[in-house]
Design a protein that fits this description.
The protein is α+β, with helices and mostly antiparallel strands. The strands form five sheets. The chain has a ten-stranded mixed beta sheet with strand order 3-4-5-12-13-14-15-23-24-26, with helices on one face. The radius of gyration is 27 Å and the shape is globular.
């Protein structure tokens, strides 16, 4: 059966055939003619002069598909019928895609063939328009001809932020509305009951089930706890909201609002009846909760860890089973690639010498806590049930989506003597994009870069006057699981000896078919039971006692706190050095790795509110909800605690180079997700950058080429395949099928092991057969290598902790298909360590036994050849079975990146690259 491509919000808009008959092509033209009659926004061109820019024309950025994420109904219908694009909707998609074949000949002079010039201001001959939003005299929004990026310049702080809000609504109003409803658990009510919408709202609301009072309290607390900066943040947010709402009013009266409001039934295209709700300040917290949960909340997975530990102990006994579990967990693997590689230790979440308070479930007793109740219609059918199960698994996993990557080189190794950085967030591919570009210049603000739509009162990732910064997801553990002992019934628990009722938070959703989403009517209630130790996620028994497992996140009820750190990053009077940069990002409570470069220095800091755990508590497993095992100085009413000091977080200034691709931060610093072992996608950057630094003379072009080359590399081929072939070639391969496969794999490996087209635009891979063979072989060889030794039960339990593969075409794992990001989670380290051990090579942090072929080279060779023959016999159609986008057997298409539709405009797919969505290339030439 063909795979079904995962669809996100409003994905039904992708195919013209889904529109009712009256919207078919013949009728679209007549309808468009009427819709084009309202006056579009008209603005005169004007010159803007760059100010305080110390980059010397050497700052560049890119963010596909394009800056314009809004489209009127007429523009949507034209796109659906004829494929036409609104202005600036996809003009950054082509340059972004073309780097895959263009990077080998890249020079400093040609970088902006594939990136935008990210200098401050707009040259006079490049000004496309100038707008004074709502007639204000204290702010202008200038847009450039090439990309349409807004350059916001204010003479007052209020006007500046008003302009930022207005520009955000111009470019992303519909997306902002979608995600404020996601954060509130109301997406299906707003956008329709498509299963993808059900899954999205369930995934996020499970972990952030806030009431309106909760959202407001977070704002009040953030403001009250941060003095004048807190007051300024509140004023900025209110001005930003005023700008958003001014655009809503203007676009409504002018009838150029996003057409999705018509297609989802919120507005009438003929009478203009209906409303677009104004944004309010609690919407910003709802938006922040989505972004924080998606990219900045490391931890969780303690119950899954307990299940696999029990399976290991059942297989091997307690002592040996624990050793096996720890080996596969790799919480401090000596062969892991590190961001801080100077040997400095930053102990966090390490294994305690004498664990205390563990509350492991009785075998077979764990069940997940239901979220959906009272379902009707399409809210309770088989598809909805499967969607809900998948959303639950994603929400409770420790395998968080990666946000990456970063390559930063000190001036000691560059040709110019100035540091160089190539970095950006890998946030997935959407249409419109979750991020938006902007430049903001005003009192106390001077920056250009990317911000999440609806949270763009400040630049969140970008450049200032003489410095640039970026982030990757770090994933250290700020989430703990507590076993609360039940009393009276299933909805009361013991809190400090008192039987206490759980709080019940509900969200009732109902939907009906619309033009955009024809999903039949349905409804359900999402119900979360909250305790002082966080929401209930599982039920189980521990030693025969009924318990509820809850998850407590240090950023829970603190989604707004990070605004202060972003405010500081935009303030040129605050960030003047690597030290002040580190001080700014210390105010960000989400789990990120932060990188910095100016004309002289580089720096790194790992952010997040890392709770100080009670002595003896092992962060890997659930613990009893008792005073002795709570976070130190924990205050339940505010969910505040003692956190590890800044000096205890991995940090560094002027290391020779930094790399990050969601790998381990530093020695002894444990992350919550599995897979920080000897082979990690971070190695793809480490190997290339280390080689560049050793040679010296690094340039913007050479560092960009290193990133682009890693973006096409198959991690399995580059770092594991050589040892697999070494085992196979330990004797002559006599089987003709296996021999032919080995030849193809070796040829591909010699060519570099990249997944790259024969020529630009061919949509056919060079070494296509070898790539097909490895894609088919990997899951077969992993299963054959480890399942016999581990046993089916333990093998299955470990695969729940860590997926075995994450190839570009995979429709499994945390990213799904057509998502670009690949090779973050997989068993490549296990295979690498095991095969090297079988070969008799030195292995640090080795697995407790040799698994491949019972530990002999000949036995391992038999396993590898047998599975290789099976893989070689699989056709392309079997390996790449097709989906709603790709025909079965189309290898390039199976790998390709899709801009997943979050609105009415669709884009063509592009070739696979494993690289940041928004990316900067920076080299500052001077400093204030």
């Amino acid at each position: 059966m063909p795979r079904r491509t995962p669809r996100f919000t409003l994905d039904r808009l992708r195919t013209p055939g889904r529109f009712p008959g009256f919207l078919k092509t013949a009728s679209v033209c007549a309808l468009i003619a009427g819709l084009l009659s309202p006056l579009s926004q008209v603005a005169a061109a004007a010159e803007v002069t760059a100010a305080n820019d110390y980059c010397g024309g050497q700052c560049s950025d890119i963010l596909p598909p394009g800056e314009n994420g809004n489209a009127t109904l007429a523009q949507i219908l034209l796109n659906q019928a004829f494929g036409t694009q609104p202005e600036h909707a996809e003009d950054q998609l082509g340059p972004y895609a073309n780097l895959a074949k263009g990077y080998p000949t890249l020079t400093n002079a040609t970088i902006n063939t594939f990136f935008n010039d990210a200098s401050f201001g707009v040259a006079s001959d490049q000004v496309a328009s100038t707008l004074s939003p709502a007639g204000r005299s204290d702010v202008t929004i200038v847009r450039d001809k090439k990309t349409g990026v807004p350059h916001i310049t204010g003479t007052t702080r209020y006007g500046t932020e008003f302009g930022a809000g207005y520009a955000a609504a111009q470019d992303r109003l519909w997306l902002m509305d979608v995600f404020r409803h996601v954060g509130r658990g109301q997406l299906t009510v707003f956008a329709g009951g498509d299963p993808s919408n059900q899954g999205l709202e369930q995934q996020f609301w499970r972990n952030a089930p806030y009431t309106e009072a909760d959202l407001q309290a977070q704002i009040d607390n953030a403001v009250a706890g941060n003095g004048t900066r807190g007051q300024q943040a509140l004023a900025d947010a209110n001005a930003y909201l005023a700008g958003i709402n001014a655009y809503i009013d203007a676009s409504d009266s002018g009838r150029y609002f996003p057409g999705e409001y018509v297609l989802t039934g919120h507005k009438d295209s003929i009478t203009n009846a209906g409303t677009i709700d104004h944004f309010k300040i609690t919407d910003l917290v709802a938006l922040a909760s989505v972004i924080g949960a998606l990219f900045g909340s490391g931890g969780g997975g303690e119950v899954n860890n307990a299940v696999s530990l029990l399976a290991a102990q059942e297989k091997y006994g307690v002592e040996q089973g624990t050793q096996v579990w720890e080996a596969f967990r790799e919480r401090n693997d000596p062969e892991a690639v590190l961001t801080v590689h100077n040997g400095q230790s930053f102990p966090y979440a390490t294994k305690p010498a004498s664990p205390q308070g563990a509350a492991l479930p009785d075998t077979g007793s764990v069940t997940s806590q239901p979220l959906v109740y009272d379902a009707t219609g399409t809210g309770g059918d088989a598809t909805a049930t499967a969607t809900s199960a998948a959303a639950t698994a994603t929400a409770l996993s420790s395998a968080r989506r990666g946000m990456s990557n970063a390559l930063v080189v000190s001036g000691q190794a560059t040709a110019s003597g100035h540091p160089i950085a190539v970095f950006g967030p890998q946030t997935g591919y959407f249409a419109p994009q979750l991020l938006m570009l902007q430049e903001i210049q005003g009192p106390g603000i001077s920056a250009r870069g990317a911000s999440f739509a609806g949270l763009s009162m400040y630049v969140e990732l970008g450049r200032g006057q003489d410095y640039a910064w970026s982030a990757t997801t770090s994933g250290q553990d700020i989430i703990d699981t507590y076993a609360v002992e039940l009393c009276q019934d299933d909805y009361h628990y013991l809190f400090h000896g008192t039987c206490t009722a759980m709080d019940v938070v509900e969200q009732k959703n109902a939907w009906k078919p619309t033009t955009a989403d024809g999903t039949a009517a349905g409804s359900y209630t999402m119900r979360v039971y909250r305790t002082k130790y966080g929401p209930v996620e599982y039920r189980a028994t521990v030693g025969g006692k009924k318990v509820a497992y809850t998850t407590l996140r240090s950023s829970f009820m603190h989604e707004a706190d990070s605004i202060i750190g972003f405010q500081m990053l935009n303030d040129p009077d605050y960030v003047k050095s690597p030290q002040t940069f580190q001080s700014a990002v210390q105010h960000i409570n989400y789990t990120f790795n932060w990188f910095y470069a100016d004309s002289t220095h580089t720096a790194y800091y790992n952010s997040g509110d890392n709770p100080v755990r009670a002595s003896g508590v092992d962060a890997e497993f659930p613990v009893w909800a008792q005073s002795a095992y709570e976070w130190r100085s924990w205050v339940p009413a505010t969910n505040t605690a003692e956190y590890t000091p800044a000096s205890a977080h991995p940090n560094s200034i002027d290391q020779d180079y930094y790399i990050s691709w969601n790998n381990k931060q530093a020695k002894d610093y444990s992350t919550a997700s599995w897979g920080d072992g000897s082979v990690h996608r971070g190695n793809l950057l480490e190997d290339r950058v280390k080689k560049l630094v050793a040679a010296g003379g690094v340039t913007r072009a050479s560092l960009t080429k290193a990133m682009a080359d890693a973006a096409l590399a198959d991690l399995r081929a580059e770092d594991v395949l050589p040892d697999l072939l070494k085992v196979i070639n330990s004797s002559t391969v006599t089987d003709s099928t296996a021999a032919a496969a080995v030849t193809k794999l070796q040829t591909w490996l010699t060519a570099g092991g990249r997944r790259t087209e024969t020529t630009a635009g061919s949509k056919t891979y060079a070494d296509a057969d070898a790539i097909r063979i490895l894609d088919a072989w990997w899951p077969l060889l992993v299963k054959a290598e480890f399942e016999p030794g581990l046993g089916t039960g333990l093998y299955t339990a470990f695969t729940a902790n860590l997926p075995i593969d994450e190839a570009p075409s995979a429709a499994h794992g945390p990213t799904g298909a057509h998502a670009g990001s690949s090779f973050q989670y997989g068993w490549w380290s296990y295979v690498d360590k095991d095969v090297r051990a079988v070969l008799g090579e030195s292995v640090q942090g080795a697995l407790p036994q040799k698994y491949c072929g019972s530990g002999t080279v000949s036995g391992c060779r038999d396993v590898l050849i047998s599975t290789l023959k099976t893989a070689a016999g699989k056709t392309a159609a079997q390996v790449y079975p097709g989906d709603t986008l790709c025909a079965a057997g189309n290898q390039w298409c199976a790998d390709s990146i899709v801009q997943r539709t979050l609105g009415g405009i669709k884009h063509g797919n592009i070739g696979w690259q494993n690289r940041p969505t928004f990316q900067q290339v920076v080299e500052f030439t001077s400093h204030r």
